[in-house]
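Worked example

This section walks through a single chain of length 430. The input is the sequence exactly as stored; nothing has been trimmed or padded.
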Amino acid sequence: MEGVTKARAMKAIILAAGFGTRMGKNIPKPLIRVAGREMIYRTMKILSDYVDEFIVVVGKNGEKIDSFLKDKGFNYKIIRNPTPERGNGYSFYLTKDVSGDKFILVMGDHVYEEEFIKRAVEGEGLIVDREPAYVDLEESTKVRCRNGRVEDIGKKLKEFDCVDTGFFILSKDIYKHAESLVREKEVVELSEIVKKAKIPVTEVSGYFWMDVDTVEDLKKARKFIVRNSIKGAGDGYVAKYLNRRISLRLSELLVDHFTPNQMTFVSFLSGILSSLILFFSVPLAGIVYQISSIIDGCDGEIARASLRKSRIGEYTDSMLDRYVDFIFLVTLAYVSNLSIYFWIVLAFAIFGSVMISYSTEKYKAAFFESAYSAIPSLKYLIGKRDERIFAMMIFCLAGLVKPLIILLAIWTNIRVVATLLIIYKHKLGS
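Given that input, the structure is written out below as tokens.
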């Protein structure tokens, strides 16, 4: 996809002259964080596959935006508007000499999901939504259309067909309409230019986008972005139906304050703590171990929500998980005074636990795709880490250490054999 989009890359204009005064923040509005990332960064990052240069229009304190962007790796140019009170239409007009023949125009205080932008960049004119699910309709800019073009636009329209998403695919012709309005009026809004030019409309409905104007908008956007950060495949039943219900709420609270790496470290420490607690209370250690499993979901959620997902992060998380599991099982066996025969059984339990992860990670290394995504039937096999830890907690609470070790030795190795058979059958069938 990247080769295709780069071949038709455009410039993107971002109107970023506003301030977040309604949210009690004395900083440029585009620098307000939503789910761990500044709004302008979020938009530019997602647009990067389609854009070769960003034109950012800033207001009187635009040096803060310029300073923020300098080390972010974007190819951008700053246009300063010394009179932002003249309206966002005037801010747009100032880009007339640098926009290119066809370009994207987007607002600096909007957030969009990747799927919305993927479809919006294929459109023309004003991108509209006929069924906006995430915005206050009363506060939205409504659009009335005729013959596929804008007939009227404004917040107070009584009769309308769709809602303005703040995303445009425009051509240079629109500047003649902007110039005529700038000559006539002191304050020019973008909606006036859009109405005068009667630009085409393209519908992109059913995806997340928001104009973040208030604290409530900020909370709503954060909630959606974090809730939409669940990985596509690989969760066990416990993670899906229990852990995620808790970890997502934790991630909502922590995403603006903690990095994914910090959450990985917290999860690791809580896992090690559960092993230390085994020396004092096996049932309590089981509970803390389960809590560490819940926290373990936060680093991935925060990474995806804040656009910080990285291969090194996934690698580190996986490695630390193996250490936590090994230390917990060995310590559990030690404090339970097991015989030499049970240490042998424990070795099989540890080996099987490691091999469950190894069997799917090795598939990914060999075939360059997730085993769970490529072979949906794998998700029905129980025995993933979240399911094992939950079972371990139950057995620890019941004081059944020996049955637990026997169970893990049998369960995990059967799971590995089943995984190999399913993968073998899938590859022979393909």
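What to look for: DSSP finds 16 helices and 13 strands in the chain.
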